[in-house]
Amino acid sequence: MDIIKQLLGRLHPLLVHLPIGFIVLGLLLQWYNRKKGQYSQAITLIYFWATISAVLACITGYLQYTSEGYAFDTIKSHLWLGIITALFSFLMYLRLTEKNKIDIIKRIPTKVLVVIILILISCTGHLGGNITHGADYLVEPLPNSMKSALGFETYEEKIITLNNENWEDKIFYEDIIDPILNNKCVSCHNPKKAKGELILSTKEGILNGGENGEIILANNSSESDLFTRLILPDDDEDHMPPKEKKQLTKEDVKLIETWIDMGNPFEATIGELEVHKELFLAYFPKEENYDYPNIAILEANIDSINAIKKVGFHVEKISKESNFLRVSCVNKPDFSNDNLSLLKSITEQIAVLDIGKTLITDNVFEDLSKFPHITILKLDNTLIDGSKVEQLSKLAHLKSLNLTSTKFNASNLKKLESIENLKQVFLHNTNIDPQSIQNLNLPQVIIDLGNYELPGIASDSIIY
């Protein structure tokens, strides 16, 4: 019996579109027919089938709710509005049919019913879409600033940054597991929007589990829902996150598995747990092999750093012993050329600057040339075309330049020769071809076009 209920319930996504189609067709014909009156019988028949299909959609929707583990609070508004939509479709049918003998229904203005049904079908469909895709599905690609302006909850991305000096001192849960869950899971599992009654933003929420009980069985990842749902095929209905959401990497999944198998500790450091370093290699900055300026500089003012962090930048030291900083715009996709002035108070301390995936153009180069100690500059996924890139020649310590997925023009490659200490340029996913770089006088520079197979990493051998 349960199998039959589940099968019938899964017909809901198919059947639910039928009443929408019938009702929209009926509304359009009513508008077109408002003077001619030649389609009255067809319109009546349309609302008859709209009623039948709406009832079937309600029944299958209810069966899906009872058999698939949805929380009633999640579906109740959609369910009741669906039932009301079916009732008003039937009321419209009775109002239009010649067989109707009920005077009170005959006196209802059809225009009133049209407006009510239009509102009902819009709201019901919207709530159904929210259940399937999440309330923030349409706005998910937008920058956080725009989401906030539209009234949507935003969750700042937490960056996992490890280096050879500090990786063993990091707390496994707080510095590794929590950022993974925050970046990939918390948008649907937080105190304000707890799908399946599961909250993953706090220790208490993780331990309490969801509507189906605990999600972690300490020391046994293979029996823990938090892990097993991650490794289901993407098209499996129980796979998490849903396939339309941002997915966890193999490294993320392996670390969650390891954390659970170690008893899901919340306070212990990586060093105390003796977790192998190879599991964390993906989170070590690739730029660590570069030599930063061998110059003594003053430490940046802590108030200045806090003010910069407050507006959305990620700021951290490149190591415990150095006063140089790594600054990223990962949480400021709306960053533009003028925003570079926000970093004016720490220009001397910035050695690594990541302003990729933002709105900057070549006009930013003049201001960038005033950051004297930049060693690594990331400009990927921006509007840069290279027309003013020669202004970076003023950066005596610049060694790595990332121009991946930009509009960098081959005619501007020659300008890179003016950057004296440049060691590597990334030009993946651009219009630059190997032929374009053959005549450059850059013997000391590795120009990486990305046209090769990536070497294997430790996690590639992980079997799920």
What does this protein structure show overall?
- By secondary structure, the protein is of the alpha/beta class.
- It folds into three domains: 2-133; 167-284, no CATH class; 287-459, Ribonuclease Inhibitor (Leucine-rich repeat, LRR (right-handed beta-alpha superhelix)).
- It contains 15 helices and nine strands.
- The chain has helices spanning 2-9, 12-15, 17-32, 40-68, 72-96, 103-106, 110-133, 144-149, 172-184, 203-208, 225-228, 250-261, 270-273, 302-310, 365-368; strands spanning 189-190, 193-194, 314-317, 325-328, 350-354, 376-378, 400-402, 424-426, 446-448.
- The strands form two sheets. It has a seven-stranded mixed sheet, with helices on one face. A two-stranded antiparallel sheet has the order 1-2.
- Strand 3 and strand 4 (325-328) form a beta hairpin.
- The two termini are 33 Å apart.
- Residues 452-464 have low confidence and may be disordered.
